[in-house]
Write a structure and sequence with these properties.
InterPro entries: WH-like_DNA-bd_sf (IPR036388), WH_DNA-bd_sf (IPR036390). By secondary structure, the protein is mainly α. The protein has helices at residues 20-30, 37-44, 48-61, 87-94, 97-118, 135-171, and strands at residues 35-36, 64-67, 73-76. The protein has a three-stranded antiparallel sheet with strand order 1-3-2. The chain is globular and about 50 Å long. The protein starts with 19 loop residues before the first helix and ends with a helix.
Length: 172
């Protein structure tokens, strides 16, 4: 399994389908690092007030940790609510090295096009006040970046398997 914390098992999304809570829970499962309520609202394509209220509830439940400050940030509490099985491990089991590398080529191109189009390294670097970008484009860019990272980790796992398999054969 992926990052499961201290013996805990992953928690399926327990929230009502289509709700702000469900969307945030899924988004937090795919997001690394702390984010502001405004950033999460933009990515979830939800009302900022509803997102802030939901995040406060999540903090009270221990789903996220809140860092107060101007502005407050929120991050998934992996110790209490571990992520779903690591997608990289699943990809490494199910895809060949060639398939992973081909998918990475597609994703690198997709991410690069967003970077060039919006003159930013990441979606967080886009100034929404001066650049016309839709929440759907931000979400697609973030999704492509996350999938690329998973594919890169899966590729490293496959290479490690191949190297350890060669080492095992050489020791025989």
């Amino acid at each position: 399994m992926g990052r499961t914390g201290e013996g805990a098992s992953p928690i399926e999304n327990p929230f009502v389908a289509g709700s702000t809570a469900e969307r945030l829970y899924e988004l937090l499962d795919r997001t690394n690092g702390a984010r502001t309520a405004a950033e999460l609202a933009a990515r979830a394509d939800r009302d900022r007030g509803a997102v802030r209220e939901t995040l406060e509830s999540f903090a009270a439940l221990g789903i996220v940790t809140e860092r107060r400050g101007p502005p407050s940030t929120y991050e998934r509490n992996d110790r209490r609510f571990p992520r779903s099985e690591d997608g990289a491990a699943v990809l490494a089991r199910e895809r060949s090295l060639e398939e992973l590398e081909a998918r990475m080529d597609v994703l690198v191109d997709r991410v690069w096009r967003y970077q060039r189009r919006y003159d930013a390294e990441t979606p967080l670097g886009v100034d929404g006040r001066t650049v016309d970008i839709t929440p759907a484009a931000l979400a697609d860019w973030e999704t492509a970046r996350a999938e690329l990272q998973r594919c890169e980790r899966a590729r490293r796992l496959r290479l490690r398997e191949m190297v350890s398999g060669v080492e095992s054969e050489e020791q025989r």
